[in-house]
Design brief:
The complex is a heterodimer of chains A (163) and B (142). With 163 residues, chain A is α/β, with parallel strands linked by helices. In chain A, 39% of the residues lie in helices and 25% in strands. In chain A, strands 1, 2, 3, 4, 5, 6, 7, 8 and 9 form a 9-stranded mixed β-sheet that branches. Classes of the chains: A alpha/beta (163), B alpha/beta (142).
Chain lengths: 163, 142
């Protein structure tokens, strides 16, 4: 059970992750794949301070996390990966990180053209990235917190008449 | 399951529960908020409390979380204290509520009260000071 959840969340680590997803996935490692945060010591330290000691936290660039996933044999570790955007999720996928489902939690882009859920609003570029991810065989669903029912992105897009 | 009553001035308790849900706690079960409203009589609130405790008492006890020591909700809750069955913790904050909800499966009401109280206290940081100390420790290589 290497990767238990790959989540798009533009807030990265916050209350829903700490109190919702970490307990529900029983993740032992939390990998934050984000180029900007990897260069920002203060944000890294804040995230480290907020994450429970029992969870191994790795914060690195998207490429760095991708290499980590490809190099280290972690078949006995429950890993959760957080990225800020579908584009970064696509980068992980293209780098060979093995995942076949993607959770869309919180996402608000500047060029919003469609609201996919209460907490996910995207523009055309992001929507294109999501389509490519789906075409690569990844099942994408909208779900902010674990007790909510996940909603299939494919169905939402079809309902919006954007498929 | 240990029942939890969040007893506060006004709608504070209800909003605490809403917020816990927003950040991902599935907290429907055995969780009740009650509001002390200035327009209500203390007797009415006492009656609501008695009903809530009755409803939540399934043999595991009830934890009452209140906002302010010395305030009406706390004062009222004290009359319900019962060793091993009903505990009161004051000074409610969100980490305390989360701890109480998440930890009630595997302990008795007295130790749940202690865990909630500890979590409430230990979650308070002067954030600027805390980060400065962490930074200082890192630069000295500790």
């Amino acid at each position: 059970m290497p990767i238990v959840l790959v989540r798009v969340d533009d807030r990265l680590i916050h209350g829903q992750i700490l109190e919702g997803w970490l307990p529900s996935t029983r993740a032992q490692e939390l990998l934050v794949a984000n180029d900007a945060v990897a260069r920002d010591d203060l944000r890294k330290m804040i995230m480290q301070s907020a994450t429970p000691y029992s969870v191994g936290l790795v914060i690195d660039s998207v490429d760095g996390i991708a290499s980590l996933c490809m190099e280290s044999d972690a078949s006995d570790v429950r890993r959760m990966i957080i990225v800020e955007s579908p584009l970064d999720a696509l980068r992980l996928k293209r780098a060979g990180v093995p995942f076949d489902s993607l959770n869309l939690g919180n996402l608000r882009t500047n060029d919003v053209t469609v609201c996919l859920s209460r907490s996910v609003a995207v523009g055309d570029e992001t929507l294109r990235a999501l389509r490519v991810i789906m075409e690569e065989g990844v099942h994408v669903s909208l779900q902010a917190v674990p007790y909510e029912r996940p909603v299939d992105l494919f169905k939402v897009i079809r309902r919006c008449g954007r498929s | 399951m240990i029942g939890i009553i969040v007893l506060t001035h006004g709608d504070l308790g209800k909003q605490f529960i809403n917020t816990a849900r927003m950040i991902g706690l599935n907290s429907e079960e055995s969780l009740i908020s009650l509001a002390a409203d200035p327009s209500d009589s203390p007797d009415r609130l006492r009656e609501q409390m008695a009903q809530a405790i009755k409803k939540l008492s399934k043999g595991d006890g009830v934890l009452i979380l209140t906002d302010l020591f010395g305030g009406t909700p706390t004062n009222l809750s004290l009359s319900f204290l019962e060793e091993g069955k009903i505990e009161v913790v004051t000074g409610l904050n969100l980490p305390m509520l989360i701890k109480a909800i998440n930890s009630r499966g595997d302990r008795d009401v007295a130790s749940l009260a202690k865990a909630a109280s500890d979590a409430g206290k230990e979650s308070i940081f002067r954030a600027g000071e805390f980060l400065r100390q962490r930074l200082a420790r890192r630069t000295t290589g500790e």
